[in-house]
Write a structure and sequence with these properties.
This protein is α/β, with parallel strands linked by helices. Helices cover 36% and strands 28% of the residues. It is built from nine helices and 14 strands. Strands 1-2-3-4-5-6 form a six-stranded mixed β-sheet, with helices on one face. Strands 7-8-9-10-13-14 form a six-stranded mixed β-sheet. A two-stranded antiparallel ribbon has the order 11-12. A hairpin with a 3-residue loop joins β2 and β3. It is globular and about 55 Å long.
Length: 261
């Protein structure tokens, strides 16, 4: 299998997974880069996976579906044009000979879902694969447009419980901005400093910082580390959040990120 982050708009990635003949794409907000890559590589699009309803994740779905006949999968409760197979936690789909389990991850939007494949060989490496949309970013998490801090914390806990070697395929190149904020929260985090340096080098070469891994994110992502004493103290310093209330700590860190320059 080959996994390709196709750039779109200013900072989106449209994830394309293929076996040399057939492909799936995740959150195609723009049909053009997907269609161009399919034509260039001689691939047939078999499935479109949608994590949530925002236009930069769905704008190209109809055009690709009409052009290729690909089946569309998406969240059960969100406003996404038919036809599509609507999915919720507990469902699973078979695509490219792979089984993807659906995980409900509300927070960024009310009905956001993620797709998790327990094991897939990509470029010679066997590891799980997670398409998490705008729920989890490298060094960050999505804004709470429709959900609550408690919902997003619970959603991130679900993802954090997956195997450490899970490849995290999020849909925006927000990493450097996220890591700048993460260093403000945890200035003494040595692994965060090392990871920031590696990501800065990648972006200087116009290379993606993604996919990350859950092991990496647990070391550097403040939104997966809100139960760490240092992060709780930082939240308390920001807005007097109770360091013993995990939801209050998470909410404070999220609000701080919203205001961070």
């Amino acid at each position: 299998m080959k996994l390709i982050p196709l750039p779109a708009f200013q900072d989106n990635y449209l994830w394309l997974l293929h076996d040399g003949q057939k492909a799936l794409v995740v959150d195609p907000g723009d049909a053009r880069p997907v269609a161009a890559h399919l034509a260039r590589a001689g691939l047939q699009l078999g499935a479109i996976l949608v994590t949530h309803h925002h236009q930069d994740h769905t704008g190209g779905v109809g055009e690709l579906r009409d052009a290729t006949g690909a089946q569309v999968f998406g969240p059960a409760t969100e406003r996404i044009p038919e036809p599509l197979a609507r999915l919720r936690e507990g469902d699973a789909i078979e695509v490219l000979g792979l089984r993807f389990r659906v995980i409900d991850v509300p927070g960024h939007t009310a009905g956001h879902i993620a797709y998790y494949c327990e094991n897939v060989n990509v470029d010679g490496v066997d590891a799980p694969l997670l398409f998490c949309g705008d729920t989890l970013f490298s060094g960050g998490c999505g804004r709470l447009f429709e959900g609550t801090p408690a919902q997003m914390l619970a959603s991130l806990d679900k993802l954090a419980a997956l195997p450490a070697d899970t490849r995290v395929c999020c849909t925006h190149e927000y990493t450097l901005a996220n890591l700048k904020f993460a260093r403000a929260v945890e200035p003494q985090n040595a692994e965060l400093a090392r990871y920031s340096h590696r990501c800065e080098q990648a972006r200087a070469l116009d290379l993606p910082t993604l996919p990350s891994t859950l092991a990496q994110e647990k070391e550097i992502n403040p939104f997966l580390r809100t139960r760490q004493p240092g992060v709780a103290r930082a939240a308390q310093a920001f807005n007097a959040a109770d360091p013993h209330d995990e939801v209050a700590v998470f909410a404070a860190i999220r609000q701080w990120k919203n205001e961070f320059k």
